[in-house]
């Protein structure tokens, strides 16, 4: 096997054997293994060792996983790679459980990141636990925690850096818009994921959030990684500024609602934007939902703003 090991990972594979080899790896166990989201060097030593000693590896895409294994110098015949993806997860879980019952160690990997986080793996883990077998997680790379660590979340004082994981928004326009309206009422930070062919549609849907900040991570950990923070209303423009900006996989953090001592937060700025297009009652209702500011205060503010516009006319 040594001739197959790339020089850059040969030492890592040996280090994995040295550092993790003496640990206990129970039989009849499903090992949920996090793998890199882009940079192959982000694999953990324990993950390398488990992938090397597992009796079989269940994976989202056998061809993708085979390429990853070979990059690390781990040579596995195709018969020891089991396809377990979103279209067959319930049925394939039965085969995995049968192997576990025979005392095999089975590793599970998705195409990138941590299985079960908007990736297949949750149904498999649930079925294995229900069948009475152990599920042992190996922590590692995740686009969720990777972006959160760089987003600089401070949030509202009472929420701190608390966040909500929303994952992918619905693909249908009406359902996506309804989901955005629900997000507008969430004061905590919200983590979203999106594919390149839908990122522009998402940006258009998020415009209604006005000045609320969004930190976007594109191609995280890869050569052309890009992280930027913009107002929600400016996200579509940011994407349009360069053809490369709509390429790659995306993670986004909708920052927590900013609040001021009087409780209006971003309400005034949102209200001004909406009043330019909507009647007072509609603008106030939507501004309150987006910003979390009290509706009564926004209504009084709207009347003053409209009165000021009339005097200017």
Automatic annotation (TrEMBL):
A molecular function (GO) held by this record is: methyltransferase activity
**GO terms classed as biological process:** methylation
Boundaries of every RsmI HTH domain copy: 264-306
Q: Where is the Tetrapyrrole methylase domain?
A: 29-235
Is Transmembrane set as a keyword in this record? no
The name this protein goes by in its record: Ribosomal RNA small subunit methyltransferase I
What family does the entry list?
Answer: Belongs to the methyltransferase superfamily. RsmI family.
Keyword flag S-adenosyl-L-methionine? yes
The catalytic activity, as recorded, is:
cytidine(1402) in 16S rRNA + S-adenosyl-L-methionine = 2'-O-methylcytidine(1402) in 16S rRNA + S-adenosyl-L-homocysteine + H(+)
Q: Which keywords does this Swiss-Prot/TrEMBL entry list?
A: Cytoplasm, Methyltransferase, rRNA processing, S-adenosyl-L-methionine, Transferase
Name of the top EC class for this enzyme? transferase
- State the function annotated in the UniProt record: Catalyzes the 2'-O-methylation of the ribose of cytidine 1402 (C1402) in 16S rRNA.
Q: Which CDD domains match?
A: RsmI
Q: What is its EC number?
A: 2.1.1.198
